[in-house]
Design brief:
Order of helices and strands: EEEHEEHEHHHEHEHEEHHHH
Radius of gyration: 20 Å
Strand content: 15-25%
Number of strands: 10
Strand order of the largest sheet: 6-7-8-3-9-10
Largest sheet: 6 strands, mixed
Distance between the termini: 47 Å
Helix content: 25-40%
């Protein structure tokens, strides 16, 4: 379990550019959770996940991974983080070498490295025939999956994905979300950072909403989307199907606004027609 305890962080302290990014943030991420962290630009979500991953030193509060401080290397090694636009970090001449880079730096045997490359490619549904391809010749979605595979090859217990669908076309986005679902079903604990509410509705079992460095909401996506005032305060838009239900409620229809899918919306409209 990851425990975030009363974490606060301020950039450029005691300068004219001082800015508080986080204010007394506390929450837990249990094993096999799928936690989404949502917030508008400047909400503090990027700072928060970098602190969780041990990339920013703590100022106030603490982060523990399975009871061990994130300040310890052994705790940090349990967390893998895939940055927004991770394909920009690809640099090896082949897909295989890029995925193998981390395990090789860990000093693993060539046999183990090859095994991890194969396993990671399967997890993100990359064809093994792409091993010898240049990562720079792949599609945007394939590049993103190579970058994720490179992190998975390190076998992290917890995986942080920062806006993983940003910049992808609709087809590539759909495919990547499907692979992320498979990773979670395979037992990977995921922290998913996004401002796209439709992605959160499709994937997350729990969501935290940040605004101005504070937690505005913590609970299920279904509960969140039924509270338009929280989304509005956080500068977030609900999924289109939820927007439809909210507009119907404003128009005087007695509808359930805690709707996550088109199928649920169709059933709710059918119920109204019967009544």
């Amino acid at each position: 379990m990851i425990e975030v305890k009363n974490v606060s962080y301020t950039y450029a302290k005691k300068t004219p550019f001082e800015k508080t990014a986080l204010r007394e943030i506390s929450f837990n991420v249990k094993e096999k959770d799928f936690l989404a962290i949502a917030g508008h630009t400047g909400s503090g979500k990027s700072t928060l996940i970098q602190i969780i991953a041990g990339l920013i030193n703590l100022e106030v509060g603490g982060v523990e991974v399975d009871g061990e401080s994130i300040k310890n290397k052994s705790a940090r090694q349990k967390i893998g983080m895939v940055f927004q636009y991770p394909e920009y970090q690809l640099f090896e001449e082949t897909v295989e070498k890029d995925i193998a880079f981390g395990p090789r730096n860990f000093g693993l045997s060539e046999t183990e490295i090859e095994k991890r490359v194969d396993e990671s490619m399967k997890l993100v549904d990359l064809d093994e025939n792409l091993k010898t391809s240049s990562p720079f010749e792949l599609s945007g979605g394939q590049k993103r999956r190579v970058a994720i595979a490179g992190i998975l090859a390190l076998k992290p217990k917890y995986l942080i994905l920062d806006e993983p669908t940003a910049g992808l076309d609709p087809k590539a986005k759909k495919n990547l979300l499907s692979e992320i679902k498979k990773l979670h079903r395979a037992g990977v604990t995921i922290i998913f950072v996004s401002h796209a509410m439709e992605d959160i509705a499709a994937l997350a079992s729990r969501v935290i909403v940040l605004a101005q460095g504070k937690i505005l909401f913590e609970g299920t996506p279904r509960k969140l989307f039924g509270q338009a005032e929280i989304l509005e305060k956080a500068g977030l838009m609900p999924p289109p199907v939820t927007q439809l239900m909210l507009e119907m409620r404003r128009a005087g229809f007695n509808v359930n606004t805690e709707i996550l899918s088109i199928d649920e919306a169709e059933k709710e409209i059918a119920r109204l027609k019967k009544n």
